[in-house]
């Protein structure tokens, strides 16, 4: 992204890259479970600039603000973090309400009904305006490059554009975009689309989401759509709608060399969970979210043990489920259902010294996640709908021994790139159970072949490729705008 050298970069996301919490021995820093943060953080380390995010930790605000560099993890000091502190009412309406009870189920179409409250919408607008004001306050020129992240900020692009008409605004939508009929139930569909069209570039993970978005605009706004160039002109402003599949930072040799050996990871996990000596170990690592297909995957494990009872005692599934948005009923009752189903399956198949499912409903830091990935024989990603899903890419990156099988939902954006995985329809229990069996039996040579191919894809199409493509498209648009301004 050499075109942007010297330009100021400001990123806006709801989630902050590290969270300061009060611990018994002072402030501790936690890294949140968020695909967005996983992807954007390395990019910000590389381009410096300012990251504006919602302050969410329990540590005192003024302590965190005053000593903003306190406890910043090593290597993460290369950009400024500016936190926006929200009132409880703002957080309730904007984050829990409109973003996570409205937009999240609206865009995921995971059979959870979106909730639209007038008061949440008011809070959402108000908080978007507060973030827009912060961007304007941070801007050192008339034309900064602003990277707006995700469904928390649909209105932000037009709000920034109103104050900084020359800004280059790149908006990336980290979740799916549904078809016009599904999106059309949102009472504020026009406002949301108009807000997003304040962007210079609007990015989605796949062409399919771009197409859905363009059709949605076509249905509900008076805009000119140019399919050929993938642009939308609305009120004399043009927006490029493009797909940029997100990815992870590929671990370089020094990073990978510091990892504990595979056998050591396996030993530690077996010891911690008291696993029987000879087992196939499958892992699932998600936020505790109803879009991730956790129940479908448990049903598949149950079906597998039913179909192939020789695996009872020899197949263990570990599900890490990081608590998330737990203030919402939908999330709490989902968690309870998962717990009940786990108990039921365990009571059916447990034997002395053996339990088929281990549900770990706790936050795990990246090192602990990496240890599980390296210990596992199989990684299971069965999202019912997912923009991209980075867990599957992290699993592949962790396996420098070229072993391990990935079972991946066809409804995750990643399925389009990661075709050497065992691709399943998670709604189809039988098919998923068969894929688990096939994974458990896969010979080492076939694992190596598939894994080597997956690794070369993710290594090449890493997160710098994602950001680089977006920023170089932005660079071209800036040049063009400068030339046009001269005429
Ligand atoms: C998804 C969203 C992100 C969000 C993450 C974690 O990946 O696209 O924007 O940060 O989930 O959710 P949370 O609500 O905890 O930030």
From TrEMBL:
**Entry keyword set:** Membrane, Transmembrane, Transmembrane helix
Tell me the protein family, please. Belongs to the glycosyltransferase 20 family.
Under Gene Ontology molecular function, one entry of this record is: alpha,alpha-trehalose-phosphate synthase (UDP-forming) activity
Gene Ontology terms describing biological process: trehalose biosynthetic process
**What is the recorded name of this protein?**
Trehalose-6-phosphate synthase
């Amino acid at each position: 992204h050499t075109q942007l050298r010297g330009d100021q970069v400001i990123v806006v996301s709801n989630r902050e890259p590290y969270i300061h919490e009060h611990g018994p021995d002072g402030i501790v820093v936690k890294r949140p479970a968020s695909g967005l943060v996983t992807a954007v953080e390395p990019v910000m380390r590389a381009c410096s600039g300012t990251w504006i995010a919602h302050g969410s930790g329990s540590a005192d605000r003024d302590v965190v603000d005053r000593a903003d560099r306190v406890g910043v993890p090593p290597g993460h000091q290369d950009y400024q973090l500016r936190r926006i502190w929200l009132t409880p009412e703002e957080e309730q309406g904007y984050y829990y309400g409109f973003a996570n009870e409205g937009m999240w189920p609206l865009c995921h179409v995971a059979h959870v009904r979106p909730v639209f409250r007038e008061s949440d919408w008011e809070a959402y607008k108000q908080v978007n305006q507060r973030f827009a004001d912060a961007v304007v306050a941070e801007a050192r020129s008339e034309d900064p490059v602003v990277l707006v992240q995700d469904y928390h900020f649909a209105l932000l692009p037009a709000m920034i554009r109103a104050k900084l008409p020359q800004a280059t605004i790149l908006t990336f939508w980290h979740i799916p975009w549904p078809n016009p009929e599904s999106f059309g139930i949102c009472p504020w569909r026009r406002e949301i689309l108009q807000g997003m069209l304040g962007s210079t570039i609007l990015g989605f993970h796949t062409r399919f989401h771009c197409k859905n978005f363009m059709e949605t605009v076509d249905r509900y706004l008076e805009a000119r759509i140019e399919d050929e160039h993938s642009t939308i002109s609305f009120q004399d402003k043009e927006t490029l709608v493009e797909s940029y599949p997100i990815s992870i930072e590929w671990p370089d040799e020094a990073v990978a060399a510091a990892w504990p050996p595979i056998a050591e990871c396996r030993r530690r996990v077996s010891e911690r969970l008291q696993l029987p000596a000879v087992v196939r170990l499958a892992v699932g690592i998600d936020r505790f979210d109803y879009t991730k297909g956790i129940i479908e995957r448990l049903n598949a494990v149950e079906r597998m043990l039913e179909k192939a009872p020789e695996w009872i005692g020899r197949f263990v599934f570990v599900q890490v489920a990081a608590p998330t948005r737990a203030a919402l009923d939908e999330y709490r009752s989902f968690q309870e259902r998962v717990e009940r189903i786990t108990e039921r399956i365990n009571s059916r198949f447990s034997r002395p010294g053996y339990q088929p499912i281990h549900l770990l409903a706790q936050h795990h830091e990246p090192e602990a996640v990496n240890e599980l990935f390296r210990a596992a024989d199989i990684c299971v990603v069965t999202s019912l709908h997912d923009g991209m899903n980075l867990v599957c890419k992290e699993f592949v990156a962790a396996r420098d021994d070229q072993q391990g099988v990935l079972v991946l939902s066809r409804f995750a954006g990643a399925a389009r790139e990661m075709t050497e995985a065992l691709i399943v329809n998670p709604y189809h229990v039988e098919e998923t159970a068969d894929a688990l069996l096939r994974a458990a039996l896969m010979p080492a040579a076939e694992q190596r072949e598939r894994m080597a191919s997956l690794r070369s894809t993710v290594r090449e199409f890493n997160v710098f490729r994602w950001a680089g493509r977006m920023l170089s498209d932005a660079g071209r648009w800036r040049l063009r705008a400068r030339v046009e301004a001269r005429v």
